[in-house]
Amino acid sequence: MVETNPNLYSNSFNIEGGNFNSAGIVSTNIKSILKKLGIPSDIVRKAAIVSYEAEINVVSYAKKAIVNLTVNPGVVQIEVIDEGPGIPNIDLAMQEGYSTADQRIREMGFGAGMGLCNIKNYSDVFHITSEVGKGTHLKMTIQTP
Ligand SMILES: Nc1ncnc2c1ncn2[C@@H]1O[C@H](COP(=O)(O)OP(=O)(O)OP(=O)(O)O)[C@@H](O)[C@H]1O
Ligand SMILES: [Mg+2]
After folding, report:
1. Among 26, 60, 96, 98, which one is least packed by beta carbons within 10 Å?
2. What is the best residue among 116, 118, 134, 139 to mutate for testing ligand 1's pocket, by most ligand atoms within 8 Å of CB?
3. Which atom of ligand 1 is closest in space to residue 135's alpha carbon?
4. Is the CB of residue 61 below 6 angstroms from any atom belonging to ligand 1?
5. Cβ–ligand 1 contact at 135 (below 6 Å)
6. Domain residue limits at 115
7. What is residue 89's predicted lDDT score, i.e. its pLDDT?
8. What are phi and psi of 50, to 5 degrees?
9. If you take atom 17 of ligand 1, which residue's CA is the nearest one?
10. Which ligand 1 atom is at minimum distance from the Cα of 109?
11. Could you tell me which of 116, 107, 106 has the C-alpha nearest to residue 58?
12. Is residue 117 part of a domain?
């Protein structure tokens, strides 16, 4: 017999590139969903940080993205798949302080070049792939007790 192992919870969200008015809505949503599911607050905090940084990057640099949130026993997974310019040099983009943010983005308080480092640091497992001219794919896994 094939055993089914349904997700505890899964949902998808859209992010619109360039729209700073709605920037942060998806990560706020994820935060409240995880809280309601009874996920411990330190895990919720990590998930909120990584999803916020990824969301701001999509708004700042990409055209649009879909975010998949999956909660399973022992693990919260957040995947952000964007359509956009992609990242030509991931090693460089991952360096602390590296940023291509323009004046407009910097005036809004972003562009310190810390987002991707924070995502890596607050995730237990972090995968990033990117194709120039197509888009970027982030996968963040956070373990739960
Ligand atoms: N989704 C993306 N699509 C295209 N380029 C991206 C994307 N995310 C990041 N980048 C590139 O990687 C660089 C580093 O991103 P990172 O989030 O670490 O810093 P930042 O966005 O520049 O500043 P901060 O996140 O501290 O406000 C960006 O400046 C940008 O050039
Ligand atoms: Mg950023």
Report:
1. 96
2. 116
3. 3
4. yes
5. no
6. 9-143
7. 98
8. -65, -40
9. 115
10. 27
11. 116
12. yes
Q: Has residue 4 been placed in a domain? A: no
The answer as to whether 27 is a domain residue is yes
Calpha distance 42→44 (Å, rounded):
5
Give the nearest ligand 1 atom to 100 CA.
29
- Check pocket membership of 17 for ligand 1, CB cut-off 6 A: no
Distance 67 CA to ligand 1 centre (A): 17
CA distances from 90 to 79, 116, 125, 140 (A): 17, 10, 16, 16
The answer to whether 74 touches 141, Cβ cutoff 8 Å, is no
Ligand in nearest proximity to the CA of 65:
1
Q: What is the pLDDT of residues 89-135, one digit of tens each?
A: 999 999 999 999 999 999 999 999 999 999 999 999 999 999 999 99
Ligand 1 atom at minimal distance to the Cα of residue 98:
14
The CATH number that applies at residue 24 is: 3.30.565.10
What span, in angstroms and rounded, lies between the C-alpha atoms of 138 and 58?
11
Helix intervals (H) in 1-145: 25-36, 41-61, 90-93, 103-107, 115-122
Q: Is residue 23 part of a domain?
A: yes
The per-residue pLDDT for 7 is 73
- Let me know the angle formed at the C-alpha of 119 by 86 and 57, rounded to the nearest 5 degrees: 40
